[in-house]
């Protein structure tokens, strides 16, 4: 009995083996669990990072409305999300059988130069497989695919591929292609999942851009229907142009008009109704027609026509709008033309002289229409040589938010001088294309070139 309870000697190692065994058994599952937990945390961190990147990608893509920019942004965003060196978007034709547009990104200047003259892909070979089988395609070696047709001469080497279809309203719009991860690794399931998620957002962004373009085209068509076609103003040369604001559905209130009067004068008018909606466009049409009736059979000064228009607007329209306008009258006077004009808060006329000089006819602008109908309006008069061009324009052509108006006016004068040799119609289009304004507002411009006075039928 005593022997059963005897304390072990110092040399006795009965407890050492169980302690070592316990420790080793504890270490194995603990190490395994820690590794597994570490992998899960890493995956979770990667997922959270990817989610944040996807959310930012959604903001980047859906924040653009111009379709060409949307497509490029989709490709660039996809490349950034998975670290791809190359990316491209292939847009299907109406039949959905070939590519009508191919947008590559990531090529260096040298790589682009090496491909100069090479036809862009039309959707044959491996790209054709993606068109006819719009499931995600992930390849570690492009050349191993049975439908791979290789690359044209000068094409940079590409081995890996991740291809995903982009659908709009349930129909395949095109395919997104990615190649060569920058870290040298092949695309994995995580990359595929990220790009598939992006493709859903891309489809919505493309549809939004297409709808925006449809609305913008409809708005522009509506606006142009309200604007007149310039009549035959011979012996004057004349031209006019209009461009809507860049914002979607921004139907504006800019207008222009011109006609020959029974007394031999030629009249031009330009105006701008405050607002960018259907009401502004409809009001613009009403004002233009009222003013045309007022000045057609009268030889009264321009200020008189504007004053009468202002009073009629105040009583005849449901809501009195605010509008600016400039009414100008060209009539022969001795050896030159006489320009008489009155402004209702509008930018001044710009005159291109035969000797190449360009200058504004600065004068008191008067107050806009719809503010104080009974206040007097000033008239102004200036001699204009033969073969001069009188340009009237709306403020959208020269205004840039945050910049002084004088800067835009100076830039317009420089552009007008550069294009002075063009016909009035070509001049108007060139001024819109090379405008100093940023396009946030709609723009209208009209130009009249004075003819020789000899034999002038209306003198």
Radius of gyration: 36 Å
Mean pLDDT: 79
What is the overall shape?
A: elongated
Report the structural category: alpha+beta
Please name the fourth-level CATH homologous superfamily of the largest domain. PPM-type phosphatase domain
The amount of beta strand, in percent, is 15-25%
**H-E string:** HHEEHHEEEHEEEHHEEEEEEHHE
What is the number of domains? 2
**Extended strand count:** 15
Q: Which tags fit this structure?
A:
459 residues, alpha+beta, Beta-Lactamase, Phosphatase 2c, domain 1, 2 domains, five-stranded antiparallel sheet, 9 helices, 15 strands, 38% helix, elongated, disordered N terminus
Would you write up a description of this structure?
This protein has 459 residues and is of the alpha+beta class. It has helices at residues 16-62, 67-82, 109-114, 125-132, 189-226, 278-296, 302-316, 405-418, 424-433; strands at 84-92, 99-105, 137-139, 161-168, 171-181, 237-243, 254-260, 266-273, 323-333, 336-344, 350-352, 358-360, 380-384, 389-393, 443-449. The protein has 2 domains: 49-113 and 121-218, Beta-Lactamase (2-Layer Sandwich); 228-449, Phosphatase 2c, domain 1, CATH 3.60.40. It is built from 9 helices and 15 strands. It has a 5-stranded antiparallel sheet with strand order 2-1-5-4-3, covered by helices on one side. Strands 6-15-14-11-12 form a 5-stranded antiparallel sheet, covered by helices on one side. Strands 7-8-9-10-13 form a 5-stranded antiparallel sheet. Strand 11 and strand 12 (358-360) form a beta hairpin.
């Amino acid at each position: 009995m005593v022997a059963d309870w005897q304390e072990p000697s110092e040399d006795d190692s009965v407890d050492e083996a169980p302690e070592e065994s316990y420790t080793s058994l504890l270490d194995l599952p603990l190490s395994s669990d820690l590794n597994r937990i570490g992998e899960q945390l890493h995956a979770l961190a990667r997922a959270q990072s990817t989610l944040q990147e996807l959310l930012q990608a959604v903001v980047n893509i859906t924040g653009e409305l111009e379709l060409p920019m949307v497509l490029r942004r989709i490709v660039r965003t996809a490349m950034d999300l998975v670290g791809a060196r190359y990316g491209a978007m292939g847009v299907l034709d109406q039949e959905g059988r070939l590519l009508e547009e191919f947008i590559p990104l990531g090529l260096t200047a040298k790589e682009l130069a090496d491909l100069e003259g090479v036809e862009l892909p039309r959707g044959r070979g491996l790209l054709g497989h993606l068109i006819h089988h719009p499931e995600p395609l992930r390849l570690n070696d492009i050349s191993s695919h049975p439908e791979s047709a290789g690359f044209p001469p000068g094409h940079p080497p590409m081995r890996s591929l991740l291809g995903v279809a982009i659908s709009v309203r349930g129909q395949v719009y095109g395919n997104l292609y990615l190649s060569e991860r920058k870290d040298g690794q092949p695309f994995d399931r995580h990359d595929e999942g990220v790009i598939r998620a992006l493709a859903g957002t891309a489809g919505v962004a493309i549809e939004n851009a297409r709808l925006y373009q449809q609305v913008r085209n409809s708005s522009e068509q509506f606006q142009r229907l309200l604007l007149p076609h310039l009549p035959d103003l011979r012996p004057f040369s004349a031209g006019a142009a209009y461009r809507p604001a860049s914002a979607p559905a921004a139907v504006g209130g800019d207008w222009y008009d011109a006609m020959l009067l029974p007394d031999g004068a030629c009249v031009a008018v330009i105006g701008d109704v405050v607002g960018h909606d259907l009401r502004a466009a409809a009001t613009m049409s009403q004002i233009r027609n009222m003013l045309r009736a007022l000045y057609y059979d009268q030889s009264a000064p321009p200020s008189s026509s504007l004053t009468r228009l202002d009073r009629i607007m105040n009583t005849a329209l449901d809501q009195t709008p605010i509008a600016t306008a400039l009414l100008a009258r060209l009539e022969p006077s001795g050896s030159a033309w006489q320009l008489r004009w009155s402004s209702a808060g509008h930018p001044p006329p710009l005159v291109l002289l035969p000797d190449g000089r360009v200058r504004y006819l600065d004068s008191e602008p008067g107050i806009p229409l719809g503010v104080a109908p009974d206040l007097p309006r000033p008239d102004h008069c200036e001699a204009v040589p033969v073969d001069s061009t009188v340009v009237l324009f709306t403020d959208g052509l020269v205004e840039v938010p945050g910049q002084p108006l004088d800067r835009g006016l100076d830039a317009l004068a420089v552009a007008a001088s550069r294009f002075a040799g063009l016909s009035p119609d070509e001049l108007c289009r060139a001024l819109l294309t090379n405008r100093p304004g940023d396009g946030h507002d709609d723009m209208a411009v009209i130009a009249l070139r004075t003819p020789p006075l000899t034999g002038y039928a209306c003198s």
